[in-house]
């Protein structure tokens, strides 16, 4: 169950501020999701890798890829925030499908509409997403990338436990030619389980009588 709030905000546990609700994105809300995303891409082009003009042309149905796909695809879930009937925020979590990297998830498409910002919605979305990720079997790491001078986002990620493991200079080029750096951040969800060495790597048994 996604917690809702009628009283005190407790965004650290994923509970949104009063009046706001968190839900998993459903097929009948894809048009609202596209509307929110297109608005955020055009208003905050420095914050996203996708460009607003290209994404505006995308059909609504293409966002079905952001619904929970079970074992069939990379998207684990998209969590959305509502104020009344209006979608005001979203976050998507994807999981690497390949065996060797299935312990890694990625956060993409983090956004809170301008008028809902600064109230704890972003922190509630991220905290609740991390709660859901902690319940995913075998998941150990969560990564994301963020434009280095996007202080609101960087502080939010740091407040929720992410730390910087890399920095990519000139990571995105805006339509006006400006080049912006990105920070690469990671959070450890679980300490890795003790590794079981395959038989061939195990210590050879001592033969009887050996000192
Ligand atoms: C970044 C964003 C998601 C934050 O959402 P939000 O709902 O405004 O954030 P919250 O109100 O939950 O704030 C949580 C924490 O984030 C940090 N933060 C948020 N806004 C901030 C600001 N303007 N300046 C500095 N820190 C800020 C603070 O650490 C804050 O904790 P605090 O309130 O205890 O100080 C939102 O500003 C946004 O959508 N921006 C445009 C798109 C974007 O940058 N997306 C991220 C792409 S990586």
Account of the 3D structure:
The protein is an alpha+beta fold and 211 residues long. It has a domain at 11-139: Gcn5-related N-acetyltransferase (GNAT) (Aminopeptidase), CATH 3.40.630. It has helices spanning 30-43, 52-56, 121-134, 151-159, and strands at residues 20-24, 75-83, 86-95, 104-112, 141-147, 163-173, 179-188. Strands 1-2-3-4-5-7-6 form a 7-stranded mixed beta sheet, with helices on both faces. The longest helix has 14 residues, at 30-43. It is globular, with a radius of gyration of 20 Å. It starts with 19 loop residues before the first strand and ends in a 23-residue tail after the last strand. Residues 5-11 and 202-211 have low confidence and may be disordered. Residues 40, 44, 47, 110-112, 117-123, 146, 150-153, 155-156, 159 line the site of coenzyme A.
The major beta sheet can be summarized as: 7 strands, mixed
Query: Helicity level, as a percent range?
Result: 10-25%
Strand order of the largest sheet: 1-2-3-4-5-7-6
CA(first)-CA(last) distance: 59 Å
Q: In DSSP terms, counting alpha (H) and pi (I) runs of 4 or more, how many helices?
A: 4
Low-confidence stretches: 5-11, 202-211
Mean pLDDT: 89
- Share of β-strand residues: 25-35%
